[in-house]
Amino acid sequence: MDIGSIKRVLIGEPFPNSMEIHERLDKIRGLAIFASDPISSNAYATEAIMSILIVLGSGALSLTLPLALGIAGLVTIVIFSYVQIILHYPKGGGGYRVTKDNLGTFPALLVAGALLTDYILTVSVSVSAGVRAITSAFPQWHDYRVGMALGAIFLITLINLRGVRESGTVFALPTYAFVAGVLVVIVVGLVRYFGLFGAPPLEVTPHVVPPQHDIGGFLYTWLLLRAFAAGCTALTGIEAISDGVQSFKPPESINAAKTMVVMGVMAMSLFSGISFLATHLSLIPNEANSILSQMTEAVAGKGLLYYWVQGFTMLILVLAANTGFQDFPRLSSFLAQDGYMPRWMMNRGDRLVYSSGIVTLAVLASVVVVIFDADEFAMLPLYALGVMVSFTLSQVSMARLMGRVGRLKPGEKLQTLFTTVAYESGWRWKQVLGVLGSVTTFVVLIVLVATKFVDGAWMVVLAIPLLMRMFYAINRHYQDVAESLRTRDLIGSRLVQVADVVIVPIGDVHKGTLRALQYAKRLAKDVRAVCVITSDAAKERLMKRWNRFPELTGDVQLLCIEYDYRDVLAPVVEYIERVKEEEFPDDLVTVVIPEFVTPTLATQLLHNQSANVLRMRLRARPNIVVVDIPFHIYSRMKVDVSQKKEPAGEEENSASEADQ
After folding, report:
1. Using CA atoms, how far apart are residues 267 and 179, in angstroms rounded to an integer?
2. Which is deepest, 16, 36, 75, 536, by most CB within 10 Å?
3. Domain spanning 497-658: which superfamily?
């Protein structure tokens, strides 16, 4: 089975471009694909708040619900801002494009670098967290966690390479099963807590934990800010839908905006419900037993519902990585369109997805998993910084856009770089919400950086500027290419002429080199065969074989370069450069390289790679054109040469000589 057949089995048959509209997502699949990260964060967001507050003692855990409601309010503001981004930028691009449109290139690249970093960490953290849930249930598998995490990344990569709609179908079941299970727990818990319908009351067993430190004043406020910032992991992934607006069925922006609202309501209902019950059940954060697990057990016992929630919690933690797989390739494609990422990042694969971006993300996330030994706790300090950068600058951008909208007259329109806007009557309060949201997320960003910097956040703080430097370097390269290829100054000037000379490097005289010489004679009258000689016996043998084909070699100049070292390509390159510089300094010089091709990669590796190495060396030299003349070993074609049979010894040696 060849590589193409394996690819078809794993990924499926290629889709024609005409099927693109049929691969679009409905709102149900769209929610499953883009909301897996923000929904899965409910498995640990409440616990993240409580883990900070417990420093103040169990009495401080009563602050969990007010902080959670504050975060829910912030999520509401952020979701509203991103709904506006979706409606005003229906082509997608999210924070990157709205920032570039309203604040400029540098802030936009800052957003892009922050988000790409965050998407890589989303995959690494999510997969590692899911593997931890598995190894907690089966401790004997703990030593294999890295391999399991890499396997999970490979599986999610394959699913995404098969197409957007198919991956949406796969991810729908665990996403909705998790939501349904947790909602049932919350509803049953609330019914039992308030004593509705005669349900048995919840058993509350308070556990008193003394304060670890006597903290007051500024440190107390700082700790509350840390708890608030920790709970803001509930915000990760909210921006995902704004990047993938064009993945939805028409009307794209309307369907994407509705999905965003449903995602916000669903995620915050879970978050608020879990926080309410965790607070009123007096639960204590425990490394061995998560808050969600404790809450489910307290409400429903260790029955079917408990194992349902735990099982699908494990699955959705792994599948939360899918948010990164959806947005990293799309954001990379937008950057590639603008010349800040390699052009191939905007090419779609056989199944109409950005395959290059998907594979690139899988490789980078796998590297992170290996470096951190699949330990999500070691990666968490790096997590969620990038998304806060995006939230802050995106909301500032929307506030500025609303200011521009407010200066328009009714019926007047403004064409920007990526969209067209018109006057809106409610522009002022939209602007105020944008400013309020940006200030809040900026404060959270500062707290995250300050509290997690030493623990590893410095890596993200360093990585983002390095990514931005890479963006600018790529863009400069593309500008250099455009400048070199432009034709504005070509009119009236002379193009580079092609020299009437062809150089053919040979190692022996066989069917492959004779075909190359025959081809070279069609290109120029001056054909020069160059051979490096390392011994008198080799020269004698070469001349004997050369003189046997006068009809092909008679009008070709044979140059034998005697050489006493092993790198036989060095004198060939030196001769070609000398011909170029001394004889044809302003013209193109053609080099014809004979190369035989074997049936398989394995057999190709059995031979010297002289042709490949020579080709790479010559490509670095300007105005030297390289032409490959392949000779397929399994081909039945025959060169029209003398039918005289050579002695057996010479025939047997020709294959080995051809490599030299």
Report:
1. 9
2. 36
3. HUPs (3.40.50.620)
Maximum alpha-carbon separation in the chain = 107
Phi then psi for residue 565, to 5 deg, are -125, 180
Structure tokens at 2: 């060849």
Domain boundaries, the chain: 25-475, 497-658
Query: 2: which residues sit within 8 A by CB, 6+ positions away?
Result: none
Q: At residue 379, what is the residue type?
A: M
pTM: 0.83
Per-residue b/e over 446-473, b at no fewer than 16 CB within 10 Å? ebbbebbeeeebebbeebbeebbeebee
| Strand, helix or coil for residue 42 | helix
Q: Helix, strand, coil proportions of the chain in percent (round to 5)?
A: 70, 10, 25
Cβ of 90: how many Cβ atoms within 10 Å?
Answer: 19
Tokens of 294: 């404790």
Mind spelling out the 3-state secondary structure of 528-597?
EEEEEECCHHHHHHHHHHHCCCHHHHCCCEEEEEECCCCCCHHHHHHHHHHHHHHHCCCEEEEEEEEEEE
Closest by CA to 245, choosing from 230, 231, 255, 233, is: 255
| Alpha carbons 261 and 85: distance in angstroms, whole number | 13
Blockwise average pLDDT, block size 10, the chain, 660 residues: 70 81 87 88 88 88 93 91 93 91 96 94 89 78 91 92 80 91 95 87 77 72 86 86 90 94 94 94 84 91 90 86 90 95 90 91 96 85 86 95 92 91 91 92 89 85 95 94 78 73 94 94 94 91 92 91 88 95 92 88 78 90 92 58 45 46
One-letter amino acid at 493 equals: S
Can you tell me the distance from the alpha carbon of 400 to that of 435, in angstroms, rounded to the nearest whole number? 9
Contact 261, 83 (CB under 8 A): yes
**CA angle (490 as vertex; 489, 494 as ends), nearest 5:** 130
Instruction: Give the relative orientation of helices 164-194 and 321-337 as an angle to the nearest 10 degrees.
Output: 130
Taking domain 25-475, whether its CATH number is 3.30.420.10 is answered by no
Q: Which amino acid is at 297?
A: E
Rounded CA gap, 82 and 260, in Å?
A: 8
Nearest to 82 by CA among 338, 397, 336: 397
Q: Which residues, including other chains, have CB under 8 Å from residue 313's CB and lie 6 or more apart?
A: 43, 133, 178, 292
How many whole angstroms separate alpha carbon 212 and alpha carbon 215?
9
